[in-house]
Structures are given as C-alpha cells and as structure tokens.
Amino acid sequence: MSNLFKQYLGVIILLIGVAILAVFAFLNGVTNVILLSGFGIILLGYVVYIVLNRRLE
Predict the structure, then answer these.
(1) pTM
(2) Per-residue confidence in pLDDT tens, the chain, 57 aa
(3) Residue 8 is inside which H or E element, if any?
(4) How far apart are alpha carbons 41 and 47 in whole angstroms?
(5) What are phi and psi of 33, to 5 degrees?
(6) N or C: more exposed end of the chain, with fewer CB within 10 A?
C-alpha cells in the first residue's frame, strides 16, 4: 500500500462510520444495534489512524 493510503486509512474508516450513522438517522431507522456498530467503526477508525501514524513516523 502507498504511504498516502496508509496515512488516511483511519480517516476513511471513521468517515464510513459517520456515514452509517447519518444515513440511518435520515431514514429514521435508528436502533441500538446501528448506533453501536457506527460507534464501533468510528472507534476502529481512530485506533487505526493512531497506530498507522505512529508506525509511519
């Protein structure tokens, strides 16, 4: 993988989690499972971002 992709992989994962939460909020389909999965993906994005940026430095 290129360094540019590795650098922004965490942010991309984080935005996927935000998109999941936004789509279901607009569709009025908010349940606890959707909220927890979106939150989990956002947390995963933060962790991936931190870990990859520490390894690239």
Answers:
(1) 0.82
(2) 677 777 888 899 999 999 999 998 899 888 899 999 999 999 999 999 899 888 876
(3) helix 3-26
(4) 10
(5) -65, -45
(6) C
> Distance between alpha carbon 36 and the CA centroid of its chain, in Å?
12
Question: Measured between alpha carbons, how far is 1 from 11 in angstroms, rounded to an integer?
Answer: 16
**What are the residues whose beta carbons fall under 8 Å from the beta carbon of 21, sequence distance 6 or more?**
34, 35, 38, 42
12 residue type, one letter: I
Tell me the C-alpha distance between 36 and 1, whole Å. Answer: 30
Distances (CA, A) of 5 to 12, 25, 32, 49, 56: 9, 29, 32, 11, 12
Name the domain count of the chain: 1
